[in-house]
């Protein structure tokens, strides 16, 4: 802050008060009458200080305040995904968790789906989709697929741009049809049939 002495020459202590008026830093200032100076006062914030309120700079004779917002820094995000049936309806769930430097979950962080990995191969989710973390620090997305396999999706939190990926697995549903691919060769009654038939079993989406 800039400090100006409007009185006689003298020395005073200026102090920085946080959101709850606790002293965070001080500086001794010696000024002649009418002189000004700039001082730097520091508040080393912690995760629990996050929020918006006024900080105060005070001397014996005057005070000044300024509204300040302290955001919780995001150290990392983690993403997990489950398994679903590849029938175009069964949803797989992606869960993304945001944590600060103390490994505490953080609420209110925007998580976005990126345009990399396999997101284009899934339904119900697309690049640019967003969700905010809840009181548990978790944001949830869902997707479906008619194809079996493993599909990876990347997520990015929009405060510090940390990213994480999760891989969902889609499996075939119940058998819906059986196709005989090869017939056994002809044989004489009483003899062993050579070469058993080959069949293909698929679900309703033609997944084997």
What does this structure look like?
By secondary structure, this protein is an all-beta fold. Helix content is 0%, strand content 47%. The chain has no helices and 16 strands. The strands form five sheets. Strands 8-14-13-10-11 form a five-stranded mixed beta sheet, with no helix packed on it. The chain has a four-stranded antiparallel beta sheet with strand order 3-2-5-6, with no helix packed on it. Strands 7-9-12 form a three-stranded antiparallel beta sheet, with no helix packed on it. A hairpin with a 5-residue loop joins strand 2 and strand 3. The mean pLDDT is 85.
Number of strands: 16
Which geometry do the CA atoms define? rod-shaped
Radius of gyration: 32 Å
Q: What structural class do you assign from the helix and strand content?
A: mainly beta
Strand residue content: over 45%
From the N-terminal CA to the C-terminal CA, the straight-line distance is 71 Å
| Largest sheet, spatial ordering of strands | 8-14-13-10-11
* Largest beta-sheet details: 5 strands, mixed
Percent helix: under 10%
- Give the SSE string: EEEEEEEEEEEEEEEE
Number of distinct helices: 0
Average pLDDT confidence is 85
* Contiguous uncertain segments of 5+ residues: none
């Amino acid at each position: 802050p800039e400090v100006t002495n409007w009185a006689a020459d003298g020395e005073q202590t200026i102090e920085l008060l946080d959101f709850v008026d606790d002293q965070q830093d001080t500086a001794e200032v010696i000024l002649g009458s009418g002189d000004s100076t700039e001082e730097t006062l520091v508040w080393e914030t912690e995760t629990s200080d996050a929020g918006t309120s006024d900080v105060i700079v005070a001397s014996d004779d005057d005070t000044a305040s300024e509204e300040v917002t302290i955001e919780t820094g995001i150290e990392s995000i983690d993403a997990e995904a489950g398994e679903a049936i590849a029938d175009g309806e069964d949803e797989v769930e992606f869960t993304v968790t945001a944590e600060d430097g103390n490994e505490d979950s953080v609420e209110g962080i925007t998580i976005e789906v990126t345009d990399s990995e396999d997101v284009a191969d899934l339904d119900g989710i697309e690049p640019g989709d967003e969700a905010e973390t809840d009181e548990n620090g978790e944001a949830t997305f869902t997707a479906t697929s008619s194809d079996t396999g493993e599909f990876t999706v990347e997520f990015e939190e929009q405060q510090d741009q940390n990213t994480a990926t999760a891989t969902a697995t889609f499996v075939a549903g119940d058998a819906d049809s059986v196709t005989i691919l090869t017939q056994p060769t002809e044989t004489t009654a009483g003899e062993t049939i050579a070469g058993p038939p080959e069949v293909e079993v698929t679900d309703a989406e033609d997944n084997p």
